[in-house]
Amino acid sequence: MASELLARVQKAAALRLRPGSVTIGGEKFIFNFRVYPAAELAELIRQMSRKTTPAAAAILAENVLDPADGRPVFTGEDLANLPNPDLVKITEAFIAVNNGTATEKN
User: Fold this and answer.
1) Would you list the DSSP string of 55-83?
2) Measuring CA to CA, how many Å separate 6 from each of 38, 58, 87, 94?
């Protein structure tokens, strides 16, 4: 019985997607964010912190998906051209979802 439960948890975790929401301009947006094991997430954040905004935005863009079709919502250029507070909200939501502490980013 426990192995059946473990198998279900592993199957759900293998999707490596979790929902998160961000409010921009008073409108709430729901995205699916890719999730990573702790070591991979730490490396991804390290990579993003060492890059220019456009390069870091390109990495983030690959991880923010449309729940309807599973495709990236943004290009790196799209994210880099957002007002910085909105880019920060999306980045914080990505990190929060990966840390299991996701709350809506207003």
Assistant:
1) HHHHHHHTTEE-TTT-SBS--HHHHHTS-
2) 20, 35, 37, 26
For the stretch 28-80, pLDDT in tens is 999 999 999 999 999 999 999 998 889 999 999 999 999 999 999 999 999 99
Is the distance from CB of 71 to CB of 59 less than 8 angstroms? no
Domain spans of the chain?
A: 17-99
Which residues have a Cβ under 8 Å from the Cβ of 99 and sit 6 or more positions away? none
Q: Regarding the domain delimited by 17-99, which CATH topology (the fold level of the hierarchy) does it fall under?
A: rbstp2171 (3.30.2220)
Q: What percent of the chain stands above pLDDT 70?
A: 95
Q: Tell the residue number behind the tokens 């299991």, with chain if given.
A: 100
Q: Which residue has the tokens 């019985």?
A: 1
